[in-house]
Amino acid sequence: MESRINKSGFVNIVGLPNSGKSTLVNALSEHKLSIVSPKPQTTRARIFSICNLPQTQVIYSDLPGWIEQENYPMQKMMNDKIRESQADADVLLMVVDGSRPKESSFTLTEECRKLTIPKILVINKKDKIPVSKIDQVKNDLEFYNDLDYSFLVSALTGEGISDLRQQILELIPVHEPYFSDDVASDKPIKFFLSELIREQIYYLFEDEIPFSTFVEITKCKGVDDQLPMASIEATIYTNKQSQIPILLGKNGSKIKELGIKSRIEIEQFLQQKAYLGLSIKLRKDWRNDINFLEKSGVLR
Ligand code: GDP
Ligand code: MG
User: Fold this and answer.
1) How many helices and strands, by DSSP H and E, does the chain display?
2) Which atom of ligand 1 is the closest one to the Cα of 25?
3) What is the pTM of this model?
4) Does the beta carbon of 127 sit less than 6 angstroms from any atom of ligand 1?
5) How far, in Å, is the centroid of ligand 1 from the Cα of 18?
6) So what's the pLDDT on residue 188?
7) What is the pLDDT of residues 238-252, one digit of tens each?
8) Does 43 contact ligand 1 (Cβ within 6 A)?
9) If residue 12 lies in a helix (H) or strand (E), which one and from where to where?
């Protein structure tokens, strides 16, 4: 069946930890998909929320919080990821906590100014700003005045969200859908789970491993935060025999670590305890095997 979606695009959300990015993604996409937590830097994974409207598909990406001081390699890596992903987005949302306008990130703004895509300033947490202070807040954020658009919203109460969403929809370019339109909000759970594992592979292994492996969720049972435990199994495919011992590590220590780290992320994402079983399989040339990629959801 031919899709009626004729516009599709990526919307990246950046801003300091705790500015409300995850909450905003949830409000904009009207589904709870990313993890919202009062602790800064909870969202380490790049999580997509795919929102299919009658003619437009919006892919929201809730990125890790920008870190002002790149003191550790991990922090630089996280910032690099933000830089990279900004470059291929269609729209950029810069979120600031309107109740703390003085804390907004200037280095991030400098990075963003270099991009040629439309940029929207989102002043969030309007519900925490006394009406008499609103002009003062806008004044404090004058630095952002050259961005293309500006919206004052509350991701928590939903105030201003539909106007913002409308603006985003207008900026989404004509493009065939990046994801097939049966990927509803509650369906791509396997996609998110494999992304979370893939993310950990990226953190734990160097060089070409992240690029030559592929994660397939082979079992996904009991996913429901009312149930005591979810049961998930995943297979990591690699296209090289020589990478199997690297993935396993000494006495299986690496895959064990990968399992633990991934499980923690998955439990946070599902808001539920989970069992995670990992296995490794050799599959030469999986990149070129269209049937395999289709079956395992990569090409969806
Ligand atoms: P992130 O780190 O940028 O992803 O921020 P989160 O979305 O995790 O939000 C951080 C905290 O701010 C959470 O406690 C949210 O409930 C809260 N928050 C987010 N948006 C709003 C808002 O519009 N108003 C208020 N009062 N709190 C908000
Ligand atoms: Mg977050």
Assistant:
1) 10, 9
2) 7
3) 0.63
4) yes
5) 6
6) 62
7) 988 999 999 999 999
8) yes
9) strand 7-15
